[in-house]
């Protein structure tokens, strides 16, 4: 019997919630899309942190550009590097300076926020690699455009072709994509279709009512690396 190779494919997100990192940790190869269209209302460049017991939305501002540009073609606004990054750091220090793991987590988080890369994808790619290292996730992370394949393919056909080129035996997708793919089509290609259902649980946030699904920043501030490792394994794999 051949080697099992579990693969996941996702858009890049800036410092996303722990479910994203659970998916990276659950697979052997994690592909990040850089050559798909950027969507303004997505979570690609925004997320939430804790401020005074409530969630606060942060957003990476972009230079103006066509709505049809790929993620890798979008550029971060000069305003971010001139003022916004510093404001975001101050906001985080105000919100988390008394968190138990502030001193341990802050250098990695600040490295992500102060990255001087103006290309949006490369900026986010840096954060994915940096946080994966902090969380001690050893999954191979691959940029989609570097897979040698027909990049004009869309949807399910694109996913199947990436899986084929990376010798996948199973494709694991977020539970929200349950209706996106056809199980029989994957099986015909020798690929098992699976879905991950996150079960993150709660943790103490200064003794206040728990605010769920915040950025990984929040998890890192309030939990030790050992506890986060346990959280990374808190999921169910569902076979449709």
UniProtKB/TrEMBL annotation:
Q: Can you say what this protein is called?
A: WbqC-like protein family protein
InterPro entries named among the record's database cross-references: WbqC
**A Pfam family reported for this protein in Swiss-Prot or TrEMBL:** WbqC
Task: Tell me where on the tree of life, at the top rank, the source sits.
Answer: Archaea
